[in-house]
Design brief:
With about 70 residues, this protein is mainly β. The chain is about 0% helix and about 60% strand. The protein has a three-stranded antiparallel sheet with strand order 1-4-5, with no helix packed on it. A three-stranded antiparallel sheet has the order 2-3-6, with no helix packed on it.
């Protein structure tokens, strides 16, 4: 299957860079990035068009584990 992850900064401070995804298991991935913002919004899409909000992480965090994939 295809999975699209969107990492959006909550301010105009920085665009996420060096975005990487690593499979942790059959149903989870670790997404990591670099950037400088107060917070990042994490979104998921199965078709690359309609995105669902997953989480907002603090600007000091540069990774997110997405679980519950199938």
């Amino acid at each position: 299957f295809s999975l699209f992850i969107s990492i959006l900064h909550t301010s105009a401070q920085s665009t996420p860079a060096n975005v990487r995804a690593k499979s942790l298991s059959d149903n989870s991935i670790l997404v990591s990035w670099s950037g400088n913002a107060d917070a990042f919004n994490i979104q998921r899409s199965m078709d690359g068009k309609v995105f669902t909000d997953l989480a907002t992480v603090n600007g000091g965090s540069y990774n997110f584990t997405d679980t519950g994939l199938s």
